[in-house]
Amino acid sequence: MSLPNKVLKRISPSSVLVCVKSCLLNSQCLSINFDRTLLVCELNAGEGDTATLVATTGVMHSKRSNWNANASDYGECATIKCSNGTTCLNISGIVKCIKKVPYCGEPVRIENSTISLPDSGQLGAMRSYTCRGRTISDSPMTSTCLSDGTWSIPVVRCRHIESCIDVQKCSSTDGEYWVYPSAVENKPVKIYCDGMSTTTPKEFLTMVNENKAFYAFKQQKNGVSRCSSVETRTWPASGTTTYQKVRINTKVCKYDFIL
Fold it and tell me: Does this UniProt record's set of keywords contain Zinc (predicted)?
């Protein structure tokens, strides 16, 4: 069993004895989670009950109120009740309840991301977010434990890969890639990215079948130029252009021009 979302501090590696002692020395700690496999101790800011405890393989949960603290085992701090926000410490033989820097609990969750585990939830501790799946961030996402006991909220978010510029964060090779434009509700669209080694890569749709464009046929009759097409634009010669890709604007998902 474990109590999630109430973690004040993580200690690793640890033992049950060290975990219990650390809780006794922290006035905000009301229970512990201890992972027997990973040897990770978690100090909790709550006791937990049948509604909040979660069955977790290899993890034990114990309430501080159930312990029979013995001063000979844990020192005089085991029997001293410090006020909230202070911790009992034995400094040069003198036992005091001193004000400690705050501990932060669980930071805000960001959609499509995973969070690194910090060494502790003390003031200044930092957690980093990593975008997962088909998402990226425009800058590093971090959260810091603040003096009021809360985590800072990252400004940037994980967003879908929508263009070849986004793809460049993962690859610099021209080729076919899947993107998820917001213009089509982030549904997958397969595009060809051209110019990936430049600062202005371009998106193209690869046609399923070969496509052709015809130039008007130019004729000369009685010294007057006549074309077989209503197109007024003239060409140096008639002909056919075969193309397999069309330029696309992924922001609005509209065709632009022919390659």
Answer: no
pLDDT tens, position by position, 206-248: 888 877 777 655 544 444 444 444 444 555 666 777 778 888 8
The residues spanned by each domain of the chain are: 7-99, 113-160, 164-258
Question: In this predicted structure, what is the pLDDT of residue 243?
Answer: 77
Question: Three-state DSSP class for 257?
Answer: strand
Pick the CATH number of 7-99 from 3.30.70.3270, 3.50.4.10, 1.10.443.10, 3.40.50.620: 3.50.4.10
At residue 203, the 3 state secondary structure works out as: strand
Query: Is 70 exceeded by the pLDDT of residue 183?
Result: yes
pLDDT of residue 236: 61
Long-range (24+ apart) CB contacts under 8 A made by 148-151 are 148/102, 149/102, 149/103, 149/104, 149/105, 150/104, 151/104, 151/107, 151/108, 151/127
Instruction: Take residue 35 and report the two structure tokens written for it.
Output: 């992972």
CA distance 78 to 66: 13
**CB-based burial, 104-143: b 16+ in 10 Å, e otherwise:** bbebeebebbebeebebbebebebebebeebbbbeeebeb
Q: What is the CATH number of domain 113-160?
A: 2.10.70
d(CA 149, CA 249): 46
Closest CA to 151 of 108, 117, 101: 108
